[in-house]
Design a protein that fits this description.
heterodimer, A: 359 residues, mainly alpha, Cyclin A, domain 1, 19 helices, 69% helix, B: 191 residues, Rossmann fold, 30% helix, 16% strand, GTP-binding (chain B), Small_GTP-bd (chain B), Rab small monomeric GTPase (chain B)
């Protein structure tokens, strides 16, 4: 990987070195300094770059000067990226940052520039990836479960082969609209053209299309190595035939619309899920409405979380309580929180219940 | 000659974002270090064949069925050190190992190549923590300069192998073991 720059370096070295030699220094010192500058560039060590630029010979060669400048440019870009994200999170404090949010921000920033990227990033956050910014990962995982359902109606054999592993291999692709895994600029911007022109669920069909395009490779992986499947599928195929994938994605999507998918995967999504509320792309969509959906889904999540916790707690102490009693209690607790919300005395009640059984 | 049996060992590496989990794994498995940072989303997974006491075994990821859990922090970042406890709890909840008290954990303080004056957590402090958690093995490493990585993973592999063996002979997956200890009488009924 480092072949090219060092070759360039050695070509320009001949010239620059002769100048340097004029300043009464030896080749060895030149090399030492060159290496030090390269290290400083790598480590983004601005302080020592300033020292090198000042000491005899300065930054030595134009290649090194370019490298030093690139570092500064990179710092500027990082700052812009950080500003864009900070602004969005300050504007909508209820949105939870997730690892990979910056991958999306970065694409928008590079294509649109700082000014246009701001409104676009807010819209993408609220109307595309809203479910991924909730306080829990479980809505995102529900999106991923659409993938095996799509495979079930297209290629049962592949779906069955993947049955040993959860579809979490698609997590990074889903959360970042593929920006985390597709590194070629031309590829990712082409893909964003496609994804942003269609409803959000299409991104899941794309992942199913990617899996189907690698069918042979996947079937070669031994059945008892689900981790290997995860590892393989979590990376994009190389080379990446985007145009082919895009057309097979559309075909899957048109032949098997989300409502028609098996395993009740579509029904299991919240009515406030971004996959259900952002179906008409291009239609006037109000960010305020998206905010309300977000709040609604947060409430649902809390309820779900509470149900799970209660269930786990009661299950642990099932013997002293008796099975039917447990079921009834959970049912009552669910109705109670549905009516009264989670805020209030129910938490302390559960806490007391836990203490009671723990002793 | 000792028997050469292939055992799959699962090692889980946990820790705050940016402490160097991927780098440690890459340094150990591929003997490589990359200066550019790319956050891992979800779980990553690598395998390596190693020889432990003449026995071939493998390493790494996903909670369930884990044989050893490695907790990583950055010695130049106190928050990542303070988070170790919650990572340990997270693991114990998610993986729910049969015997949480004896499950092997190894602690790694990474990035010791960074200048001394940036260091936030002293070896002494880290070792006190490890002692308080039941004498957890502790290593200070640099994934960047390949310092101590091999040594740390050797201990990790050994602990994982010992854990795997104890599970194998300890009844395995046959539900709750019948408790025959005399002092356990009062545990029979909690009410």
């Amino acid at each position: 990987m480092d072949e090219e720059p060092s070759e360039k370096l050695s070509r320009s070295k001949v010239l620059d070195q002769s100048i340097y030699v004029d300043s009464k220094e030896t080749t060895e010192e030149f090399d030492t300094k060159r290496r030090a500058i390269e290290t400083a560039c790598q480590n983004r060590d601005v302080k020592s770059l300033v020292e090198h630029a000042t000491s005899p010979g300065g930054l030595l060669t134009d290649t090194l000067r370019q490298a030093a400048c690139e570092e500064k440019e990179l710092d500027k870009r990082k700052q812009q990226l950080s500003d864009l994200i900070t602004e969005a999170l300050r504007r909508y404090p209820m949105l939870c940052y997730f690892q990979g949010y910056h991958d999306i921000a970065q694409v928008l920033l590079l294509v649109l520039g700082t000014q246009l990227a701001r409104p676009a990033f807010l819209r993408v956050s609220l109307l595309r990836i809203r479910d991924y910014m909730l306080p829990s990962l479980s809505p995102a995982l529900k999106h991923l479960h659409l993938i095996p359902a799509i495979l079930e109606v297209t290629d049962t054999r592949v779906r069955r082969r993947l049955a040993g592993t959860q579809p979490y291999f698609a997590l990074a692709a889903a959360l970042t609209l593929y920006a985390h895994d597709i590194e070629e600029y031309q590829d990712i911007v082409r893909l964003y053209d496609f994804l942003l022109a269609h409803e959000p669920v299409v991104a899941m069909y794309l992942f199913a299309a990617i899996i189907l395009s690698r069918k042979d490779e996947l079937l070669d992986i031994p059945v008892d190595e689900p981790e290997m499947l995860h590892f393989t599928l979590s990376k994009m195929p190389q080379p990446l035939d985007l145009e082919g994938l895009i057309s097979s994605t559309l075909e899957l999507y048109q032949n098997h619309p989300p409502e028609s998918l098996p395993f009740r995967v579509w029904r299991q999504l919240s009515r406030s899920s971004v996959l259900k509320t952002s179906r008409m792309v291009g239609e006037h969509t109000d960010l305020k409405e998206a905010e309300n959906h977000f709040v609604q889904q947060t409430k649902e999540l809390r309820r779900e979380e509470f149900r799970k916790q209660t269930y786990a707690l009661l299950w642990r102490y099932r013997r002293p309580m008796g099975g039917i009693g447990v079921a009834i209690l959970i049912g009552l607790a669910s109705i109670y929180i549905r009516k009264r919300g989670l805020e209030g005395p129910i938490w302390s009640y559960i806490g007391r219940l836990r203490d009671y059984f723990a002793h | 000659m000792a028997s050469r049996k292939k055992v799959l060992l699962k090692v889980i590496i946990l820790g705050d974002s940016g402490v160097g989990k991927t780098s440690l794994m890459n340094q150990y498995v591929n003997k490589k270090f990359s200066a550019s940072y790319k956050a891992t989303i979800g779980a990553d997974f690598l395998t390596k064949e190693v020889l432990v006491d003449d026995r071939l075994s493998l390493g790494v990821a996903f909670y369930r069925g884990a044989d050893c859990c490695v907790l990583v922090y950055d010695v130049n970042n106190s928050k990542s050190f303070e988070a170790l406890d919650s990572w340990r709890d997270e693991f114990l909840i998610q993986a729910s190992p049969r015997d949480p008290e004896s499950f092997p954990f190894v602690v790694i303080g990474n990035k010791i190549d960074v200048e001394e004056n940036k260091r936030m957590i002293s070896s002494k402090r880290a070792m006190t923590f490890c002692q308080s958690k039941g004498n957890l093995p502790y290593f200070e490493t640099s994934a960047k300069e390949a310092l101590n990585v091999e040594q740390a993973f050797e201990v990790i592999a050994r602990s994982a192998l010992a854990q795997e063996e104890s599970e194998e002979y300890g009844g395995g997956d046959f539900g709750d073991p019948i408790n025959i200890r005399l002092d356990s009488d009062r545990d029979g009924c909690a009410c």
